[in-house]
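User: I'm putting together notes for a lab meeting next week and I want to include a structural view of one of the chains we've been expressing. I don't have a solved structure, so I'd like a prediction I can at least talk through. The sequence is below, exactly as it appears in our construct file.
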Amino acid sequence: MGINKWLKPLLLTTIAPIFIVLAIFPVREWLTTTTDIVMLQLLWVAWVAVRQNAALAGITTLVSVACTDWFFVLPYFTFHIEKIEYLVTFTVMLIVGLMISKLAGELSKNVRDTQLHASNTRCLYELAKALNGLDDINAQRQVFTTSIKNHLGITLRWNNNTMDNGEYFNIEQNTQWGGFSSDAELSPENRAFIDTALSLLFQVHENSNLRNQSASMKVQAELERAKNALLRSLSHDLRTPLATIMGSSSMLADENIELSKASITEQAKNIYEQSEILNQHFNKVMELSRVNKIGEQLAWQAINVHTLVTEAKARRQQQLSGFNLALVFDKATCCIGDITLLEIALANIFENAARYGDGVATVDFNTERIGNITHYKIAVSNLIVTHPSSSDEGVGLGSVICDVVAQFHQGEFVLAIDELTQVATAILSWSAKND
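Assistant: Thanks for the context. Below is the predicted structure for the 435-residue chain, given as structure tokens.
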């Protein structure tokens, strides 16, 4: 290893100049002046300066001057100089050679600095692209350490605000982000590059936090909206049954009002029917509470859509005994989601469709894949026979449940009624990442 290290400099600075003068020596009589030989020597000095470094070029200049004096200046094969003109020539050759060495060295350094700057810029650009595609902070740090290792050939270790022996870099001063440490001794250029890369990592961390905070605020706003919708639905759906029960019960309890047996039976029937409606509403409230509890630990899984529809209908077996579904999708079609929550949402959609429709509903299912995200959509359409606004029962709680299920799946629930055709369409849509 040591021999190879010194072989190349020896070849460039000593062997090559001697070889050049030996090649010229047989034809020295053809050359008019010693200056011609000096110019040929300077060609090699310039090549060494450009391709290697200034130090080697300087040594090559000294060896070239000595070789020219030894082989081409009378008396031959001595370093004695009889004419002063040769001394001037050699002095100029030495000065020009050293100047070429210095200028070429500066040029080479500038070229290396430019190449290093371009390489660092390209690395930072690739690092920025890779980091911006990640939301997880730990994944961002892993990508960062891998990129630095590939670029600089060093290994960085993540430290949570602790100082190890060796080099240590904070992600950002006066923060609790922590930093990275390395046992290798780094050059000032590499330290400056890592500091710049850490500034980029800090910005990406901050952007991830802002996105997470924005998502949290959005979820909170959706929860508030769902809570307000629930209160409005409860107020609307409970008002009429309670008013009917209070009116019928007060009529039966009033001693000043004489009622026939048929009237008493009718009022008791009203109280029972409205109590049954209230019971259904309370069941909806309990179902909504269950949905919120399940949604806290969402279980994503592959689901056969035909099985999903069948199980959803079975959840309302009594209410949907005479209700028919027309499926317009393949029985082997699958989706990804929480099967329990989706069954509950579809059961509420089918229940409203059966309550206000003509006993038949069409169920359609569509998927659309964009990048690594798949979008799912279930649409249930039916002809309205009884408009919801004319019923005491309303549809608010069922719609709220569907909306909450959609929100847990990062989707939305839409109920639209075409006033011209009197066709109601309930659309439950959501998205899932592909594994």
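A couple of points you could mention at the meeting. Confidence is low (pLDDT under 50) at residues 390-395. Residues 188-253 form the longest helix (66 residues).

User: Perfect, that's what I needed.
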